[in-house]
Amino acid sequence: MGKAGAAREWLLHVLLLFNLAIAQPLYAVLSAGATFFVVHAFTALHLLLFALAFSLAIPAALAALVLVLRSFGAHAFRAVQLLVVWALSLLALLAPLSRLEGRAAVPLALGAFGASGLTALYARSQRWREFLRFASVVSVIFPVSFLFFSPVKGLLPAGDGFATAWSAVVRNVPDTPVFLIVFDELSTVFLVDEQGDIDERNFPNFARLAESATWYRNASANSTSTEVAVASILTGRHVDRKLLPIASAHPVNLFTLLAPDYEVVSFDHLVRLCPDWICHKRDAPSLDPAAVLRDLFVLYQHVELPKQLREGLPPLEGHWSNFVENASQAAVEPEETSAARANSPFARKAKKHFEAFLDSVDESAPSKLFFLHSLLPHVPYVFLPDGRSYASHDGFDTLPGWSMTDNLWSRDEDLVVRGYQRALLQTQMVDGLIGRFLDRLEAQGLLARSLIVITADHGSNFHPGVARRGFNAATWATGLMVPLFVKLPGQSRGARSDRNVQSIDVTPTILAALGRVPSDGFDGASVLDATGEPPKTKRALPWRGEPIDLPADLTPQLMAAAAHKQDLFGFSAGAADFYRLEPYGGLVGRALDRFELGPEQMATAQLDAPGQLERWDPSGDFVPASIEGTIEGDATALPSRQLAIALNGRFAAVAKLFEKKGQLRFQAIVPPELLSAEGNTTAFYSIAEAGPDGEGMRLFPLRPRATTQDSTPGTR
Questions:
Q1: Backbone angles phi, psi at 429, to 5 degrees
Q2: Which CATH architecture group holds 163-569?
Q3: Is the CB of residue 484 less than 8 Å from the CB of residue 524?
């Protein structure tokens, strides 16, 4: 074979191996998460260039670069050629091997061994090289399949289709401001008390909204996938998860149905059902090639690396882009407490998103439809009820009991309950945002005349051993039941309804409230139609799996979940309920000098960031309310794994010790009113012989950390 023939053969070999090792693993993960391209503002042309680059241009450039080395001698060229074959073979093998359980060294060793064998075969067998040459046809099959037979095909041109929307309504001149707010991972269970009513003690603004709106307590989401759930809300249809959440895939939606009579003000970065000719996308993102490449590199590492090595990567959960940026603050020094570093980037952006929405409401609102998809109270849980943050870094990796890699809760119920606690505290912050929204409408003279619909895409589960969006009978209430409040123009008295309502009913309801007549084609129906009979079941599409039908009435599951929440937190008067985890909730705030002390233990509590407690500015956006650290020394003789945490001589929390990466750790959220701006002393005690409300409790102080400032047992 001449030099030209050898070069062509080498090119085909590299095309095949590169596609197997890099392009196809990326195609697979991006086909399942095609919203990546929506968030990164890909057009059809961008998508075609992406596939051409990864299946043809980049591997061709690599092959050409190696061929250049022929001028340096046959031996150097052959060595580099075999090195490239070995590296690409290793990467091709690692993707399936990385799913193996156990130590990371096992898939790495197996991959290296397999790659060495394939490289030796490549060097010695002409038949094997001929086979690779013929098999290189997959370099065409992979991108074609990705572009035309996966969900990303929704980004390719498919015709206009908006004509259907124009005939779907009877248009009239708008005089009613329309507000549709969709929260993320907000379950109805979060908001209700032990009686199944809105818990006005902890969520006064949701209760305020319910005083002038109809609360559909039995409302449920149609999916636990954000993209599918929000698209279902905006289209009134059961959405196929294979369809991208973009206008061309869903041409008949709330935005196109109300245009051009209503100017649309849309605040959403994930679901793009509002076409540019309606929304004009003042703040629409543009394609950033550098950001795309950074995110692709993170995605590829999640595909290729074994589980143990993936734990140090930027998390994907809750993100669709900017993985590195959103995780960057995990590396911030723990002593940092400035307002600029006080929140997770992801959570901070979600909060600013709501602020921008509020600022957009002005006297021109009667001619507008306002849509907000808020990524709150979605993880990470970093906010206190007053809106200040207690996390000085990302927050995703500091949620005990939850694995970002598997999206699973621990089987340790105590840790899961602490995640639930943090979700409830963050939901109280969302309640404050609802209050600001209602205040804004009142200040603009818009509240009485507005049509307001507030709901959520889906809920979130807090069950040991189950995914946050896991789907079974035990999680229907927390995962699927979502708040739905509808305040009609002129409505001043609240009501509650337990009729079977689903997310697909939202758009038909808005149209009916505006006096418009939707055409056939909706799967949902207006809740204002008293003549129609609600469906006999609820249809839901799990995060993964096939659609299923659920009972039409989920209020029994709601009441059971509310009772469970009461058992975990109690319902005493005041706003500190969610700081008081049972069975030790009654101890929070009580003086420690009322309890008997046992002998000092041979273990020490080491705080992760003691400087945060010593140097705290209460006027800032950060509160050191997360007390976390490790137990050092001999912990085997501790009376129990229940650790009492004291602040300034009073009980602040009780935390159960847990193991993480070989360390014995603790973490608890304490009421901010127990913190002092003048500096704080902490003390740690192992609990034994505790009865109800601490009756008969003995506290065994942990050894104080060796500092010159320590003067009392267990303080630091």
A1: -65, -40
A2: 3-Layer(aba) Sandwich (3.40)
A3: no
Given the structure tokens 């709106």, which residue do they identify?
Answer: 213
Residues 6+ away with beta carbon under 8 Å from 159: none
Q: What residue spans define the domains of the chain?
A: 3-155, 163-569, 583-701
Cα(273)–Cα(248) distance, rounded to whole angstroms? Answer: 8
Tens digit of pLDDT for each residue in 328-354?
A: 433 333 334 333 344 456 677 888 889
- Alpha-carbon span 504 to 166, nearest angstrom: 20
pLDDT the model gives residue 607: 92
Going by the DSSP 8-state scheme, the letter that residue 104 receives in this structure is T
Tell me the pairing of strands 682-688 and 663-669: unpaired
Judge contact between 205 and 434, C-beta under 8 A.
Answer: yes
Question: Both tokens of residue 709?
Answer: 């400032």
Q: What is the pLDDT of residues 113-129, one digit of tens each?
A: 999 999 999 999 999 99
CA 281 – CA 171 distance, rounded (Å): 24
From CA 367, how far away is CA 210, in angstroms rounded? 25
Residue 595 and residue 605: Cα distance in Å, rounded? 20
Cβ–Cβ < 8 Å for 631, 665? yes
Which pair of structure tokens corresponds to residue 453?
Answer: 């619909």
Closest CA to 237 of 591, 44, 508, 27: 508
Q: List Cβ neighbours of 34 (8 Å cut-off, separation of 6 or more).
A: 150, 151, 152, 154, 155, 244
Report how far apart, in Å, the C-alpha atoms of 604 and of each of 335, 597, 685, 709 are. Answer: 20, 16, 10, 15
State residue 341's pLDDT score: 41
From CA 211, how far away is CA 496, in angstroms rounded? 10
Nearest CA among 627, 646, 643 for reference residue 589: 646
* Residue (of 383, 410, 381) closest to 395 by Cα position: 381
| Cα–Cα distance measured from residue 652 to residue 671, given in angstroms and rounded to the nearest whole number | 7
